């Protein structure tokens, strides 16, 4: 059972003298910081010269923190290899798609697949684990920092050799690869695996199979590095292990967290993009089922580097972020960073304390977060997020497919977040779930923008339908094979038979003046679309105008106790938002979705279940405009203890209320 909610910050004691560290500890206590993360960039401080590892300093810092009631998340320092590991060793460095070899001086400049790097990384990780695992203040581990944040797929010689091994393990024979990829096109046929190139610069585009498979290869290799580090730590420590990731990075988060103990993410969404912030909370809650997530990094005011900056938070917004995080399943809310960097490329970044030791513009907001943490802690610890009935499948594999085939600049993450926002603003409690997640407990499932649907997913989703669920498929879903090629039996492969349709055409609706009509609502249609001919399905949305007028873009097909709904195109604009929300609410009502509120846009309700069966609503305004929601029954304000009557409940800008029914 959890004992507390954490309120933390990233700390770099190796950059400061002993007097400053003492000052920091006192200020941390004043600000309510009860956990710090450290060590991820400190390799040169731990091992200034190769083979001479000194960790006494970090042991003493952890002990001092613990004396002040502050616990520690210890990191492995592998994102910033020291100069002795990189100087005069271009063969160890990351190589981008244009053949440029990275130089020393930032981070992630080395190839994490390089054997010499792996050896040295294993040694430093093991020595850290030996040195600090027994310390009472150590509560968790973080591996590295933001895998594949600044880089994507490496094209070095090490990766080339591993790529060929990976292909042989995946395809078995070169004939199988040639057949799967269709390599006779443009004379791309290969005689041996070692002839298959990396997707480096070419006069035009690469074969889609090659480019997507190389991304999946890169996903797997970074996850293997994570697994290797975790295995070393587990020899010495029972503390849980995580990694701080996001959907921006070039990783498969579902695979990455497979062998870790809990999930954590970094977020720097501005207030105007608060739905992106909530998107991460609803996704990371589901990467490690049954274990609360951590927000490992967010700014107390603004993010910035030497070249850019984001808008600072308005007063009150940080508190709203924290309440939402804890209410949606977060165990920790942590800042990057505690004390402003006096050097380096992130000097202007927002912090809790300035480089000269004074409170920053965000300091009072941090104190507000600590006050609200104490206020809601007992309520959050005694309850869990309520099971959502609406789920959206999220897939980093789909992100790779769309990176290879973006059509006219489509971006998977942006598409999914926009789709998610429609469900959020309609007042539904929702989960974002990885591809391999269970569908138990859900009533309505969305699968948008996933080019390739695996056989396992099809079987699982069809069973969900036959047991009474409604599955809305598309847009831009199902049209590619596992090898990123086009189906030859039907445009959407086996999905078509399941959905009772035949896809007549697939083409981009943009520029065709096509409109879609669903239940009397009409909206322009966009992106690469599928046009359907019903076989067993019923047409519920027809195309108006354009080059496929009269044909279907939405169908529904009853299977067992449920229904498959095909959404062949994306309605856009204000009319499109209205149409999509109508589609959502119509099928949610049909699926008997009950975990929903009429909360006003810009405000959320995070429903939680208490130990005695009570339902708790954590209501938070996120847009600074205030809001309202209808309470279905009389309840009790869990903070003040006052009875509240059913009916309209008004909430002020960035305010929160906790209502127990």
Automatic annotation (TrEMBL):
Top-level EC class as recorded in UniProt: hydrolase
Pfam annotation, one family: Glyco_hydro_42
Domain Beta-galactosidase C-terminal: 603-660
Domain of life: Bacteria
Domain Glycoside hydrolase family 42 N-terminal: 11-372
Any one GO molecular function term: beta-galactosidase activity
The keyword Cell membrane is assigned to this record: no
Stretches assigned to the Beta-galactosidase trimerisation domain: 388-591
Catalytic activity: Hydrolysis of terminal non-reducing beta-D-galactose residues in beta-D-galactosides
Protein name: Beta-galactosidase
């Amino acid at each position: 059972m959890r004992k507390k909610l954490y309120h933390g910050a990233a700390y770099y004691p190796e950059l400061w003298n002993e007097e400053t560290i003492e000052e920091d500890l006192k200020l941390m206590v004043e600000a309510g910081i009860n956990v710090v993360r450290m060590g991820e960039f400190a390799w040169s401080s731990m091992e200034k010269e190769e083979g001479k590892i000194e960790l006494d300093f970090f042991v003493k810092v952890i002990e001092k923190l613990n004396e002040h009631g502050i616990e520690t998340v210890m990191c492995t320092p592998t994102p910033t290899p020291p100069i002795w590991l990189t100087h005069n060793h271009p063969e160890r460095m990351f190589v981008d798609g244009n053949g440029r070899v990275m130089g020393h001086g930032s981070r992630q400049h080395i190839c994490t697949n390089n054997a010499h790097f792996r050896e040295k990384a294993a040694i430093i990780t093991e020595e850290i684990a030996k040195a600090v695992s027994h310390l009472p203040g150590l509560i968790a581990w973080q591996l590295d920092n933001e895998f594949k944040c600044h880089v994507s797929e490496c094209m070095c010689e090490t990766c080339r050799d591993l790529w060929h091994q990976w292909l042989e393990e995946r395809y078995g024979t070169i004939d199988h690869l040639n057949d799967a990829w269709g390599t006779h096109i443009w004379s791309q046929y290969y005689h041996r695996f070692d002839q298959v190139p990396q997707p480096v610069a070419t006069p035009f585009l690469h074969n889609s199979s090659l480019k997507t498979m190389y991304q999946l290869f890169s996903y797997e290799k970074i996850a293997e590095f994570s697994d290797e580090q975790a295995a070393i730590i587990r020899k010495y420590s029972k503390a849980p292990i995580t990694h701080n990731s996001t959907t921006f990075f070039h990783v498969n988060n579902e695979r990455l967290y497979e062998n870790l103990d809990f999930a954590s993410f970094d977020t720097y969404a501005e207030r105007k993009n608060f739905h992106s912030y909530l998107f991460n909370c609803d996704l990371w809650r589901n990467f490690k089922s049954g274990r609360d997530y951590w927000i490992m990094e967010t700014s107390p005011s603004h993010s910035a580097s030497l070249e850019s900056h984001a808008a600072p938070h308005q007063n009150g917004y940080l508190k709203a972020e924290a309440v939402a995080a804890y209410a949606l399943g977060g165990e920790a809310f942590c800042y990057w960073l505690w004390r402003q960097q006096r050097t380096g490329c992130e000097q202007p970044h927002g912090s809790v304390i300035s480089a000269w030791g004074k409170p920053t513009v965000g300091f009072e907001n941090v104190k507000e977060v600590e006050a609200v943490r104490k206020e809601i802690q007992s309520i959050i610890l005694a309850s869990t997020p309520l099971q959502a009935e609406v789920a959206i499948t999220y897939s980093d594999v789909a992100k790779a497919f769309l990176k290879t085939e973006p059509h006219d600049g489509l971006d998977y993450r942006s598409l999914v977040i926009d789709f998610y926002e429609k469900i959020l603003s309609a007042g539904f409690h929702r989960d974002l779930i990885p591809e391999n997640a269970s569908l138990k407990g859900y009533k309505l499932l969305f699968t948008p923008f996933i080019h390739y649907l695996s056989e396992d997913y099809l079987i699982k989703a069809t069973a969900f339908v036959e047991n009474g669920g409604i599955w809305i498929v598309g847009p831009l879903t199902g049209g590619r094979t596992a090898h990123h090629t086009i189906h030859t039996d039907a445009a959407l492969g086996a999905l078509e038979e399941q959905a009772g349709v035949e896809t007549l055409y697939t083409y981009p609706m943009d520029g065709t003046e096509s409109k879609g009509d669903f239940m009397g609502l009409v909206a322009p249609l966009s992106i690469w679309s599928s046009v359907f001919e019903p076989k067993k399905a019923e047409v519920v949305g027809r195309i108006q105008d354009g080059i496929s007028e009269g044909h279907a873009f939405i169908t529904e097909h009853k299977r067992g106790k449920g229904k498959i709904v095909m959404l062949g195109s994306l309605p856009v604009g204000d009319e499109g938002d209205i149409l999509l929300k109508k589609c959502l609410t119509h099928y949610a009502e049909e699926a008997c979705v009950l975990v929903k509120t009429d909360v006003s846009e810009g405000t959320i309700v995070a429903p939680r279940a208490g130990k005695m069966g009570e339902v708790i609503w954590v209501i938070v305004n996120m847009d600074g405009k205030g809001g309202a929601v209808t309470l279905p029954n009389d309840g009790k304000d869990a903070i003040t203890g006052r009875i509240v009557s059913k009916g309209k409940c008004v909430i002020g800008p960035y305010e929160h209320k906790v209502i127990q029914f």
